[in-house]
Amino acid sequence: MKMLIIKPIVTEKQTKITDKKSNCIGFRVYPNANKLEIKKVIKELYDVSVIKVNTMNYSCRKKFRYTKTGVVSGWKKSFKKAIVMLKNGETIDFYGDKF
After folding, report:
1. By C-alpha distance, which of 30, 2, 3, 9 is closest to 84?
2. Structural domain of residue 77, as residue ranges?
3. Rounded alpha-carbon distances, angstroms, from residue 66 to 43, 60, 71, 77
4. What is the number of domains present in the chain?
């Protein structure tokens, strides 16, 4: 099994989406991953039924800030995001008592 998932997305924006649709969960994945591979890995890793996978590619962005020594500029990395829709009634518990 190839590991294509980098990490789950737990942000305010993603939490609002999850509150509206409790069966949608976001993951950050490697750019070379396709929908079928992501579906298979999620199914095997979390033992849930995946209905649909939507993917989005985010391009890199220019980032800068002002400091005492002047302007520091750089680039924010590009990444790929996958929104996974699970079967109704199924959820993935990231904060469970599995420790």
Report:
1. 9
2. 5-86
3. 45, 20, 5, 20
4. 1
The tokens describing 10, both together, are: 């737990």
**For 24-64, how does the pLDDT look when each residue is reduced to its tens digit (9 = 90+)?**
999 999 999 999 999 999 999 889 999 999 999 999 999 99
92 domain-assigned: no
pTM to 2 decimals?
0.80
82 SS3 class: strand
- Determine the 3-state secondary structure of 59 from DSSP: coil
The rounded distance, in Å, linking the Cα atoms of 15 and 25 is: 9
* Single-letter amino acid, residue 46: Y
Structure confidence at residue 99 as a pLDDT band (50, 70, 90): very low
Q: What CATH number does the domain containing 74 carry?
A: 3.30.70.330
Give domain status of residue 13, yes or no: yes
The token duo for 88 is 């109704």
